[in-house]
Design brief:
It is built from five helices and three strands. With 99 residues, the protein is of the alpha+beta class. It has one domain (7-98): Winged helix-like DNA-binding domain superfamily/Winged helix DNA-binding domain (Arc Repressor Mutant, subunit A), CATH 1.10.10. Strand 2 (59-64) and strand 3 (71-76) form a beta hairpin.
Amino acid sequence: MIDFSQLDRTIHEKGRLSIMTLLASRTSPWPFQDLKTELDMSDGNLITHLRTLEKAGFILGEKLTGEGRPQTLYSLTPEGKSAFVSYLNVLEQILGLGR
């Protein structure tokens, strides 16, 4: 029997799951504006989810300043990658039960 409590509640929320999926989909960091555009989220909503993931240690935001407008780049931490893989493994078990 699957222990559904193994689903990480931090990742499981739709917005945060979307962010984690995008960050896991490539090796280079995602700029805030690209995440915002891809996910069609407001600044405030995206920032709230990013802060939750940062607080959990799943992502890292790096502020870049220099010429032009400052930007923040986001990437998964090793802990975030591990948590995401674990999350996907639990989902695969759940899907296996439904087949």
